[in-house]
Each structure stands twice: as C-alpha cells, then as structure tokens.
Amino acid sequence: MKTFTGTAQDIGCEIFIEHIMPIIRKASHGMEAGHLAEFYAGLLAGACGSMAADFGKDAAKIMIDSVAAQFNDVVQGVDLGMVQ
C-alpha cells in the first residue's frame, strides 16, 4: 500500500487524484457537460455534508468558504470556459 506524505491538504489532493479521479472518469464517461457539472456538484455536496457531520455546520461552512476563496484566487483571470 502506498504511503502518502505532505500536509493533510496535499494528502487529500493526492488521494483524490490517484483513487477518486479514476472512478469519476469511469462513472462519467460519455456524460454531457451539464450532467458532468451536476455529477461534480453531487460529489462536492457529499463532501460538504460529511464535513458538516464531522465538524458541525458552522465549522464546515468556514472550511468550505476558505477552499472556495482559495479556488477563486487560483483561477482569477484564467479562462476555464463555460459549462453548457
């Protein structure tokens, strides 16, 4: 079994890329863009709900808002295209 190293956030990203993304690719194969966006929204909603269950709604909201702000900072000015 692989050992993950780095910060907790690094490890979470690595686990997502190595283990979750292959499942997502297989499950979403052939989906239209709109359905794929809904698929990702469902994954995010599930993760947010799990955070709320683990840490409480208020703490989860703070973490989710922080991640959203970090994402916004990273993609600021980057043309990601529009999901139709």
Gist of the model:
With 84 residues, this protein is mainly alpha-helical. 75% of the residues lie in helices and 0% in strands. It has three helices and no strands.
Output the keywords.
single chain, 84 residues, mainly alpha
Description:
There is one protein chain. This protein has 84 residues and is an all-alpha fold. Helices cover 75% and strands 0% of the residues. It has 3 helices and no strands. It is globular, with a radius of gyration of 15 Å. The termini are far apart. The model has no long low-confidence stretch (mean pLDDT 89).
Q: Overall mean pLDDT score?
A: 89
Annotation field: number of helices: 3
The topology string of helices and strands comes to HHH
SS content category: mainly alpha
The largest sheet is:
none
Q: How many strands appear in the DSSP assignment?
A: 0
Based on CA atoms alone, the radius of gyration comes out at 15 Å
The helical percent reads over 70%
Q: What does the overall shape look like?
A: globular
- Report the portion of residues in β strands: under 5%
Termini separation (Å)?
40 Å
Low-pLDDT parts are: none
Annotate the secondary structure layout.
Elements: H1 8-28, H2 33-55, H3 57-75
